[in-house]
Amino acid sequence: MLFVIAPDLPAIDAVSDYRPKIPLRIYTADNALIGEFGEEHRNFVPVKDVPDMMKKAILAIEDKRFYDHGGIDWIRALGAVKADLRHMSLRQGGSTITMQVAKNFFLSRDKKPGRKLAEVLLAYRIEAALTKDQILELYLNQIYLGQRSFGFASASQAYFSKPLKELSVAEFAMLAGLPQNPARNNPAVNPKAARKRQHLILKAMREQDIITEKQYQDALKEVLHVSTKGQEFDTHAEYVAELARQQVYAQFKEESYTRGISVYTTILKADQDAAYESVRRNVLAYDQRHGYRGPEAFIDLPDDEEDREDAIDQVLQKRRSSDRLIPAVVTAVNAKSVQAETIDGEDIEITGDGLKLAAPALSASAKPEFKIRPGAVIRVIKSEGKPEKTRWAITQVPQVAAAFVSIDANTGGLHAMVGGFDFNLQKFNHVTQAWRQPGSSIKPFIYSAALEKGYFPATLINDSPLSLDGGDSAWNPQNDDGVYDGPISMRTSLAKSKNVTTVRLLRAVSVPYAHNYLEKFGFDLAKHPKNLTMALGTGAVTPQQMAGAYAVFANGGYQVQPYLIAKIVDGDGKIISETKPPVVAQESNRVLDPRNVFLADQMMREVVRSGTGAQAYQRIGRLDLAGKTGTTSDAVDGWFAGYGGGVVGVAWMGYDDPKSLGGREFGATLALPIWVDYMKVALQKRPPQELPAPQGLAQRDGEWLYSEYLEDPTVRAIDLDLQAAPAGEAATAGTSPPQGEVNPPHQ
Question: Which segments constitute the Penicillin-binding protein OB-like domain (predicted)?
């Protein structure tokens, strides 16, 4: 057999020149792991950095004479042969650490005599080529230990959510029990078997004087907190991780997932957590105030208990998971409570306020397809609090989409990105991929263009009905509330998000000038109309693009490019690529006159203090907050874009298949609460930023304007002598308003 097997043995280059398959990992700027991509979850750790107690625990049960034999422990092997003969089967292998390395790298796991002999021969070759510590290092990093973890460092994170160096004796022994059978001894899914194996290892460690009697007794009593999350991450940044993965894959292809590349993003963990929770909370709030849509499905519940459990398990396994929105099957209903079984097999009871959302579906008169009854598949959510006070409530998976993004106003580095309600339910990233109408969140850029034409915050504009004849049809822009206030200032016009006055302002500035002006802020001009509806946001933007645009106001007038990846590092710690933040306030990047920035900022602060964004100031209480709400026609899209403390944030909500969000919904009710909840966290350690008045400004009647226009009477008012536009006046020279655009976006 030696002569037959030896010539066919593989070369041992795989162990002598070991290159572990280490997955692609994505981190926040403050080193929180937010994503991992690759078939094998592995953290390579040099043998010198593995805690001594971890090594001793493994050797105590797997190969206690490892440092004494030459690859084969003949004493143990003879014992295994005796056991096999006694049971007339191949139960015991007697494998050493070296033999396991040979098997893991080169051979199958079948216990056949031929394979065993090949294992022995390869073990001798490995022992001749490597030192004992090198062999142990291979074993510690290569072996599969369940939960998609390869190597003990990865397993430590998967089972205990901490590095090897922080484990206790009891935890070391638990991990040491995994190699024999990772499925059976997995503490996350089979704690009883895992504990039994752990006790066996602790006993061996005590008998070999690796631990003292006190350590032994303490370890037996220690209650282990095993993570059931496996390779999930504490920070929800799935959209960020996927975007980073795409960028790395574009450069390195399949090698991205095996060469140990680490990507460090500009994301901040606390900011990301705040953004995620804010989007989830406010989307659920919107969804619940628009009523219950009924159960997700219905099943017939068999009378037989075992069949009943199988039916429940089968239907719940088909439900796509969503963080904290737990699928359950209703098992009983009465006037005051609903009993259900969750996907985890837990029997729960829902009472009181927990039934509030679904009250119409519990009515005796509810339609069959809407009624909650035994067999109904529903979603439940657990209230936060002490376990003994756990309360359950009926909820539902929202159908509406939302997004939030924040960036550093000075560098463009992203601080937080939430591309949708739940990455598990929808991979489409609304921050970078969704082109939506911005509504009135585009208005600050029109007002900024007007400042360059000599208009200023106190310029009066006639807020009265306006009718524009485009030839074939008339266009009648309207204020959202149907109220017209007569002459109002530019400041008031923006704060109240008046549509008619903004159209008059754009007409005074001229469409071609304002359209070209948008390019200063990084907008794609091809996606914005060249007519007066541009003033009301009938173009298309992404939330990320909008964040970059508002950053120009927030940073003093400099264009920045939002970016995500700070640096990419290979498996050896060498920097492959690095994005250095741009020099702050570099004059070559200036696109706005400092005077323009100052006046536009003052007007947007008024929006937050007294206008449509007043909720921001009321809830955060900072005077440096500035921004603008946006609601498109029929409330199809809701926006809030704004900044404070050097942070720019943009929130959006809408349906993927565009439809109205509701007659009483606006940017102030949809997106602004998301922005506020985020900013309350993001600005905690950022002092308010005040913008001093730059040179070149003068005051007229207490309001600032450009000095060169101080004595110019032509910029004092717009259309104050008109109650309506002159008959036959077109929306813009040479063009007509869009056909069918009766009431364009507003607010």
Answer: 292-400
- H-run or E-run covering 468: strand 468-469
- The neighbour count for residue 129, using CB atoms within 10 Å, is 13
pLDDT in tens, 538-552: 999 999 999 999 999
* Beta bridge partners of residue 379, listed in sequence order: 327, 395
Q: Distance (Å, rounded) from C-alpha 640 to C-alpha 557?
A: 20
Question: DSSP for 350-392?
Answer: EEGGGGSTTGGGGSTT--TTT---TTEEEEEEEPSS-GGG--E
Q: Write down the pLDDT at residue 95.
A: 83
Instruction: Say how many C-beta atoms besides its own lie within 10 A of residue 676's C-beta.
Output: 23
Q: Whole-prediction pTM value? A: 0.81
Instruction: Compute the distance between CA of residue 316 and CA of residue 303 in angstroms, rounded to an integer.
Output: 18
Helix (H) or strand (E) holding 639: strand 637-644
pLDDT at 385: 57
Catalytic residues: 62, 440
Angle, helices 52-62 vs 132-142, to 10°: value is 90
Do 562 and 463 lie in one domain? The reply is yes
Report how far apart, in Å, the C-alpha atoms of 204 and of each of 60, 269, 342, 693, 731 are. 6, 43, 41, 76, 88
Contacts of 591 (CB under 8 A, 6+ apart): 520, 521, 552, 557, 558, 559
CA 256/CA 657 separation, integer angstroms: 35
Distance (Å, rounded) from C-alpha 325 to C-alpha 575? 41
d(CA 355, CA 292): 11
Coil vs helix vs strand at 614: helix
Q: Residue 664 phi/psi, 5° resolution?
A: -110, 15
| Strand blocks (E) in 262-317 | 262-265, 297-298
d(CA 602, CA 703): 10
- What is the identity of the amino acid at 608? V
701-706 contact pairs (CB < 8 A, 24+) = 701/458, 702/458, 703/456, 703/457, 703/458, 703/489, 703/491, 704/456, 704/457, 704/598, 704/599, 704/602, 705/454, 705/456, 705/457, 705/458, 705/599, 706/451, 706/454, 706/456, 706/595
Cβ pair 375, 301 in contact under 8 A: yes
Q: What is the pLDDT of residue 90?
A: 46
Residue 502 gets the label, from left (phi > 0), alpha (psi -120 to 50) or beta, of: alpha
479 and 598 share a domain?
A: yes
b or e along 85-115 (b: 16 or more beta carbons within 10 Å of the residue's beta carbon)?
eeeeeeebbbbbbbbbbbbbbbbeeeeeeeb
Domain for residue 2, yes or no? Answer: no
Q: What is the extent of the structural domain holding 700?
A: 402-718
Distance (Å, whole) CA 26 – CA 42: 14
User: Is the same domain home to 363 and 476?
Assistant: no
Same domain flag for 388 and 408: no
> What values do phi and psi take at 70, rounded to 5?
-100, 20
**Is residue 453 situated within a structural domain?**
yes
Q: Cα-atom radius of gyration of the chain, to the nearest Å?
A: 33
Coil, helix or strand at residue 400: coil
Dihedrals φ, ψ of 340, to 5°? Answer: -150, 160
Q: H or E stretch including 402?
A: strand 401-408
Do residues 304 and 350 both lie within one domain? yes
User: How many distinct structural domains can be found in the chain?
Assistant: 3
CB 186 within 8 A of CB 149: no
Q: Which residues contact 479 (CB under 8 A, 6 or more apart)?
A: 463, 498, 499, 500, 746
Rounded-to-integer distance, Cα 608 and Cα 103, Å: 67
Residues 58 and 122 in one domain: yes
Amino acid at 182: P
**Domain end: 332, 367, 393, which one?**
393
Among residues 442, 409, 418, the alpha carbon closest in space to that of 648 is found at: 409
Low-confidence ranges of the chain (pLDDT < 50): 90-92, 722-747
